């Protein structure tokens, strides 16, 4: 399969779309249904009442990690002819993000283990168990803020590659580079426990721009016919 072929591009777009759908469920929907910040009792009860949803969220995260590895390789081979150095930065940043996401899954598995194997904590009161579960759920949230920093680095590198490639619309790259600021800023203010309403609003706008840029890039890969002006891209074959 040639890197610049229609099937290669559609495969890249499909993997991107699968990450968006699966991640939308496991990273956005499931935690919003389960996690109640600052309320251990309610969070624990939500896990118990929605245990299958919680498990599905964990499975979804696992599939996201698998898709991330595939997509990272596909993107590297697609853009290394534009700039091998920047493509490598984008690749390692996304791999680092995936590693942190994988480690962060432990913070979901511990509450599940506590609730499934209650004899582990026989000496603790119910409110103490709730506090432990809340601690791990909070830790998972902070883990997300950490991997978002690496995703921001990936996004600005990928945006630059798209912008310089000449075979994708420049505005797609610009959207990603601008949106990456939202991920980086949101992570920093959350990790440093800073509260600023104006900054939060600005971050939401930037995050929307980033999501729009990624979705536009995804559907461009899936639908649009791309004219590769750089002939070298069609000379690279996958092994």
SSE layout:
Elements: H1 6-34, H2 40-49, H3 51-79, H4 84-104, H5 106-116, H6 126-165, H7 170-191, H8 197-223
Helix pairs in contact: 1-3, 1-8, 2-6, 3-4, 4-6, 5-6, 6-7, 7-8
Q: Could you explain how this protein is built, in words?
A:
By secondary structure, the chain is mainly alpha-helical. The protein has a domain at 6-151 and 214-224. The chain is built from 8 helices and no strands. The longest helix is centred in the middle third of the chain and has 40 residues, at 126-165. The protein is elongated. The relative contact order is 0.13. Residues 231-239 have low confidence and may be disordered.
Gyration radius (Cα, Å) is: 20 Å
Number of helices: 8
- SSE run: HHHHHHHH
Q: Determine the mean pLDDT.
A: 90
- Percent helix, as a range, is over 70%
Give the strand content. under 5%
Shape: elongated
Summarize the entry for a quick read.
With 239 residues, the protein is an all-alpha fold.
Structural key phrases:
single chain; 0% strand; elongated; mainly alpha; disordered C terminus; 8 helices; 239 residues
């Amino acid at each position: 399969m040639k890197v610049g072929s229609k099937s290669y591009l559609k495969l890249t777009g499909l993997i991107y779309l699968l990450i968006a759908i699966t991640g939308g469920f496991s990273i956005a929907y499931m935690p919003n249904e389960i996690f109640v910040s600052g309320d251990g009792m309610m969070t624990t009860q939500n896990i118990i009442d929605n245990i299958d949803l919680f498990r599905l969220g964990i499975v979804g995260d696992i599939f996201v990690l698998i898709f991330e590895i595939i997509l990272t390789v596909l993107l590297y081979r697609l853009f290394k002819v534009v700039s091998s150095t920047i493509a490598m930065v984008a690749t390692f940043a996304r791999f680092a993000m995936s590693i942190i996401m994988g480690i962060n899954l432990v913070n979901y598995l511990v509450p599940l283990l506590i609730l499934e194997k209650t004899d582990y904590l026989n000496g603790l009161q119910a409110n103490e168990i709730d506090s432990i579960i809340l601690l791990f759920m909070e830790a998972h949230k902070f883990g997300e803020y950490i991997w978002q920093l690496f995703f921001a680095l990936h996004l600005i590198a990928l945006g630059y590659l798209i912008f310089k490639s000449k075979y994708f619309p420049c505005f797609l790259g610009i959207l990603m580079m601008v949106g990456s600021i939202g991920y980086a800023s949101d992570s920093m203010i959350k990790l440093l426990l800073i509260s600023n309403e104006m900054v939060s609003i600005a971050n939401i706008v930037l995050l929307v721009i980033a999501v729009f840029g990624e979705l536009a890039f995804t559907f461009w890969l899936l639908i649009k016919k791309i004219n590769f002006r750089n002939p070298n891209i069609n000379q690279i074959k996958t092994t």
